[in-house]
Amino acid sequence: MIFPTEQILNRVTNGDESAFDQLCRHFSTPAYQFCINLLKDHDDAESAIKQTFDRIWQERQLLYTHSDFNSYLFNVLKTVVFENLILYSQQTVMGQYMARMENLYRG
């Protein structure tokens, strides 16, 4: 039997938290492996996974129960990882800019 079944996805769509917990437990290891390969940091990987599952739970009514949940999960996960990488790079650039400005005004 392929996991998740249509029945489990229907339960998730209808707000069944125990069914959602089953999904999270089943996919947490492959999701972590995906994230750690991209982010190279345990805390960042865990944060991305939490954000992904939170997003899926919030948008659960949009789940199409006949589709491939695995593909859906990794598309959402990829989006979250790239959003985090963009945010991190923007923060890094802003920090570097502020440091340069501070040095200019001191000097």
UniProtKB/TrEMBL annotation:
**Keyword annotations of the record:** DNA-binding, Sigma factor, Transcription, Transcription regulation
InterPro entries on file: RNA_pol_sigma-70-like, RNA_pol_sigma_r2
Q: What GO molecular function terms would the record report?
A: DNA binding; sigma factor activity
A GO term (biological process) for this protein?
Answer: DNA-templated transcription initiation
Q: Has UniProt tagged this entry with the keyword Plastid?
A: no
Q: What is this protein called?
A: RNA polymerase subunit sigma-24
